[in-house]
């Protein structure tokens, strides 16, 4: 749509900025009673307003201010509507500009932030010289075009004019040499053939622009689409010897249209009203069924309904076996077996038939709740967690119970080790936000939870958003840093499958991945049926290393089960080093070792992050170690054990 005229005082489009005759600057700082500086007078006509509220203008606290022109008081000019909010941490670092046209008279401006009502002032505008410059006017032609550039069926001409001084009074056009007519909106030409639209504009001072023109051709549209789409159906599922589908049948529809394109596909199950098809339709009721289907294109043509028939029979062996569910308690224990400071309860369930629907737990005799992840108990005293699992067939296991005792003492269970990295990391993404202390022993990095096991990326993103809101409320981070953290969390792969998270599998369930590793020195590893590897008793030093490639800064994830083990990082090639006569010593002497601790009965999740010579070690999603070390910025990965097992080893480079 054309802006036929720009009224005096309105905001000038970006194209007119170069014509602004004057620049008026307001600045603000820490004070909420007055601006640091403000203009008192101006000349009527185009002007660029600059409002800066930054450290450079004296704002050291991050306080927000606005520059707002009063448009409600009849005592002052009301033709400029400006309302700029600025703070040192916004997208423009507190400096904003806007182009306007000022008229003679007085403008009142103020700060609209509550409590800043004393920040106000007046701008007096005097008349300018006569306007002798005509408006600038442009034209654009739009519509569907054929391969020669001609417009099919119709062409629409849109005109636009601007005037930085007295403002646009009128815009006119003439079609194919006819008389000039006032332009009120886009002009659509449907007559077939070649056409020319001439156009001009006049400002409020009487200056008229030199006429310009736009030429184009309109051709007849092609024949209408009268052919309906082609639509097909397929039925899938497990079938018995008679061809009937066992338990369920899935109907998949597909439609194509080579002219106007498919608009929608519909289906009807067993004579019911037609419904829009979006995804394959699964029918699990026993008996004979018929699915009718049709498709409609964008020209409104609907195909003749077709149908597919099939029979669904009951699964002859219903699932009557409840899931198998296990529970374990972990944490630091004293000489009496009590957990010091905190105890973490982990539950796991499997079901070989219909599958696990949910796992539930009851804490100290309370109501059963849905289990979503490890439960950490910090209250001192005797406790018991009852647990059960239900499969998709409705079978619930007999409740079991885990009794344990927690005694006071030990570090903060949420932050047993203070994360001292300089910036906040979210998985493999460095947000750049400074890593600040939130409370004694806890920094922002301790609280992000990016090393925990999340059900999905959305669950982590909601947690991080809530955390950022809380930190902003506490004054730990600014509003701008809040946005940076949420954006970095969205770009991270936390909660996504490892393949989408940028992780490469070094050891998975396949024998092929294990074959890439090489043992040097004594001992060795045996591959198990589930893809894990278990070390054989050592008779001297031995290391299993991954010789495929070297790694610089990285995040290494693995699962460990055993009393003690170790991971070596960033060591040279064991066969090309001067100490190659004893290659098993190269990782020990020239790499960096991270010790592992755990239990012979429970798999423990570990993550090792290396940035520069800074190492962070997470166990079960909690930071348990942080130190500096190592001799090299890049090198190979190796593992060592004393009778334990490893599985699901994967690595991802860190984004710097």
From TrEMBL:
GO terms, molecular function: hydrolase activity
InterPro entries to which the protein is assigned, alphabetical: AL/BT2_dom (IPR010496), BlueCu_1_BS (IPR028871), Cupredoxin (IPR008972), Ig-like_fold (IPR013783), Ig-like_OmpL47-like (IPR058094)
Domain of life according to the entry: Bacteria
Positions of the 3-keto-alpha-glucoside-1,2-lyase/3-keto-2-hydroxy-glucal hydratase domain: 503-651
Keyword terms: Copper, Hydrolase, Metal-binding
Stated name of the protein: Glycosyl hydrolase
Species: Phytohabitans aurantiacus
């Amino acid at each position: 749509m054309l802006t036929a005229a720009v009224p005096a005082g309105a905001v000038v489009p970006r194209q007119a900025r170069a014509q602004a005759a004057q620049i008026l600057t307001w600045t603000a700082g820490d004070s909420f009673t007055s601006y640091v500086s403000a203009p008192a007078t101006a000349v009527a006509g185009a002007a660029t307003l600059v409002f800066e509220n930054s450290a450079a203008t004296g704002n050291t606290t991050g306080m927000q201010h606005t520059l707002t022109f009063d448009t409600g008081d009849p005592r002052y000019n009301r033709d400029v509507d400006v309302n700029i909010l600025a703070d040192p941490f916004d997208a423009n670092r507190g400096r904003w500009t806007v182009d306007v046209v000022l008229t003679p008279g007085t403008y009142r401006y103020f700060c609209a932030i509550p409590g800043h009502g004393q920040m106000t002032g007046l701008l007096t505008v005097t008349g300018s010289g006569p306007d002798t410059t005509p408006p600038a006017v442009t034209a654009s032609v739009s519509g569907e075009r054929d391969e020669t550039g001609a417009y099919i069926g119709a062409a629409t001409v849109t005109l636009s004019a601007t005037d930085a001084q007295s403002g646009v009074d009128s815009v006119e056009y003439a079609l194919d040499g006819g008389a000039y007519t006032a332009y009120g909106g886009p002009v659509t030409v449907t007559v077939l053939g070649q056409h020319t639209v001439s156009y001009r504009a006049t400002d409020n001072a009487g200056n008229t622009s030199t006429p310009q023109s736009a030429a184009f051709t309109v051709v007849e549209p092609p024949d209408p689409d009268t052919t309906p789409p082609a639509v097909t159906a397929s039925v899938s599922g497990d079938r018995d010897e008679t061809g009937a589908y066992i338990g369920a049948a899935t109907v998949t529809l597909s439609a194509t249209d080579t002219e106007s394109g498919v608009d929608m596909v519909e289906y009807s199950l067993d004579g019911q009203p037609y419904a829009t098809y979006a995804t394959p339709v699964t029918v699990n009721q026993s008996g004979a069924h018929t699915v009718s289907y049709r498709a409609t294109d964008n020209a409104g043509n609907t195909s003749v309904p077709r149908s597919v028939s099939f029979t669904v029979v009951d699964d002859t062996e219903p699932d009557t076996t409840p899931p198998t569910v296990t529970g374990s308690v972990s944490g630091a224990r004293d000489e009496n077996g009590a957990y010091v400071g905190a105890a973490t309860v982990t539950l796991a369930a499997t079901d070989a038939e219909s599958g696990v629907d949910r796992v539930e737990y009851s804490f100290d005799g309370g109501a059963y709740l849905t289990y979503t992840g490890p439960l950490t108990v910090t209250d001192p005293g005797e406790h018991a967690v009852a647990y059960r699992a239900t499969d998709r067939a409705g079978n619930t296991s007999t409740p079991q119970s885990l009794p344990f005792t927690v005694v006071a003492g030990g570090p903060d269970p949420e932050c047993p080790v203070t994360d001292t990295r300089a910036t906040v990391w979210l998985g493999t993404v460095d947000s750049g936000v400074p890593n600040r202390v939130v409370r004694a022993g806890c920094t922002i990095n301790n609280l992000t939870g990016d090393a925990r096991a999340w059900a999905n990326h959305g669950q982590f993103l909601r947690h991080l958003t809530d955390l950022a809101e809380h930190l902003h409320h506490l004054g730990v981070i600014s509003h701008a840093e809040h946005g940076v953290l949420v954006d970095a969390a969205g770009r991270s792969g936390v909660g996504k499958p490892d393949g989408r998270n940028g992780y490469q599998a070094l050891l998975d369930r396949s024998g092929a991945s294990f074959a890439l590793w090489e043992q040097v020195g004594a001992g060795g590893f045996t591959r198990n049926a589930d893809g894990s590897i278990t070390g054989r008793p050592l008779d001297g030093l031995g290391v299993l290393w991954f010789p495929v490639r070297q790694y610089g800064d990285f995040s290494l994830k693995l699962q460990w089960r055993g009393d003690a083990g170790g991971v070596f990082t960033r060591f040279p090639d064991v066969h090309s080093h001067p100490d190659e006569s004893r290659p098993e010593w190269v990782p020990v002497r020239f790499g960096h070792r991270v010790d592992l601790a755990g239990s012979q009965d429970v798999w423990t999740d570990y993550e090792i992050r290396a940035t520069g010579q800074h190492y962070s070690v997470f166990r079960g999603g909690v930071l348990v170690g942080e130190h500096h070390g190592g001799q090299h910025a890049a090198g190979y990965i190796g593992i060592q054990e004393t009778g334990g097992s490893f599985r699901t080893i994967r690595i991802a480079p860190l984004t710097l």
